[in-house]
Amino acid sequence: MRVLVLGATGYVGSRLVPHLLEHGHDVVAASSSEPRPDRFGWDERVHAIRCDVTDPAAVLAAVDGVDAVVYLVHSLDRSDFSDRDRVGAETVAAVVRESGVRRVVYLSGLVPDVPETDLSAHISSRLEVERILLGSTDEAVALRAGVVIGAGSTSFEIIRQVATLFLVQPVPTWMRSSVQPVAVSDVLRAIDDALAEDGPRGAVDVGGPDVVAYPDLMQVVGGEAGLSRLRVPAPVAPTGLVGLATALATTAPFHTVTALIESLHHDMVCRPGHTWQPRSGGPLVGVEEAVRRALTPLYAGPEGALPSDPAWARGNPLLDVLPLPAAGRTAARLALHRVRTLLPGA
After folding, report:
1. CATH class of 2-145+184-205
2. Residue 322, pLDDT above cutoff 70
3. Which of 51, 82, 167, 204 is the most buried (most CB within 10 A)?
């Protein structure tokens, strides 16, 4: 197939493009910024283009001759992400209907089993985009995933940095919700299945084999990193304050962190009977194995770090060789990141 990947330079997109090539597809890799194939190690087999999903003319040109669209665009790093994501989804859906593209795959988010009025702004936006894109063609599928595990994944990096930085970790009582993480390798497999002629349609949940509480996930990350940390209950911890503190304690984009923290009040697990099962069979990657891969230096699989990952998610070569404890190295990295953000042109 000829597959258009919208949001190809993001975390999942940067892993998906070579994955699709390995499986024999032609790939059009689209991003909102000027394409830089050399940054991602893409060769001449990848047709890299610039495409703003809110621009109908750009989207129409991008879908020319493609068989399927994989939509990976999310704007959590902006305060107005809901509005921008809505406009982008509406634009792409309209062009898909006009152009006759048959297959659309959207990487959505797990939706907790609560009234929609109780959903966070982040999940509400994902659900809105999902519904718009599912209405674009009968062969559309929304793959709902929660925490995606892999070096460079925003949700994983936030957990890793918090689990590393603090020797004593306050855990709000409302953060005991369950989560069903999924390795990025399995996300790629789910996209494979969604692109298949007889693949799933509609909204399908994607999760790994393990369901854990958020503090337990932090413990897994710390344990695989060889770190001993003490977690203590924090009965009084407003969501806004926790979001602000987490944003200040990590190098991830501010609006992304606060939006994700807001989503931690509810269980984020797959729905029985609506969960993706690999067509090829074989086991899903467990949470400990996925974390181990993500923490292994120079790991060559999708969970490993890539040079193209955003600077905030990458280590610092100088700090990495200094004889510092893990918490000290993370603190130094955070301080350096803060200084850089204050410098003109940084």
Report:
1. alpha beta
2. no
3. 51
